[in-house]
Amino acid sequence: MLTQQAIEDFKNFLDMNIAYAKVTVNGQEKQLVIHRRERLKDGRVAVYLNITPQLGTTATIQRVQLYNKNKQLWADKTERIVLSDVQEGALYRFVFRITEQEV
Question: Which residues of the chain, if any, have pLDDT below 70?
């Protein structure tokens, strides 16, 4: 069984290696910086993106991806988040839980 330290090291590895995001809004892909990283009270690792489409338009967030430092895709999520009459944007969150299971 993994020790608590090993699980913590995996969380640190995940957190340190996520480098940037790509977001597709209205069919156009844009690279984003990671807005914030956080350890939630229950131990999960959270990564936040601030998605800000052009103001005053209707926007649809279609895809959100996370990449590592080697520019390799690590997480990919298809979405259909419609923002009407955009004023500011959307805060998007990926949450990761690292657990061990006996099989």
Answer: 55-56, 86
Residue with tokens 């298809």: 78
Phi/psi-derived region of residue 17, left when phi > 0, alpha when psi is between -120 and 50, beta in every other case: alpha
Question: What residue type is assigned to position 42 of the chain?
Answer: D
Of 15, 22, 18, which is closest to residue 78 (Cα–Cα)? 22
- The model carries a pTM of 0.87
What does the radius of gyration of the chain's CA atoms come to, in whole angstroms?
16
Looking up tokens 């090993």, which residue turns up?
A: 6
Instruction: State residue 17 phi and psi, 5-degree precision.
Output: -95, -10
Measured in degrees and rounded to the nearest 5, phi and psi for residue 8 equal: -65, -40
Are 50 and 35 in contact, with CB atoms under 8 Å apart?
A: yes
Could you give the CA distance from residue 51 to residue 49 in angstroms, rounded to a whole number?
A: 6
Question: How many Cα atoms sit within 13 Å of 11 on the Cβ side?
Answer: 23
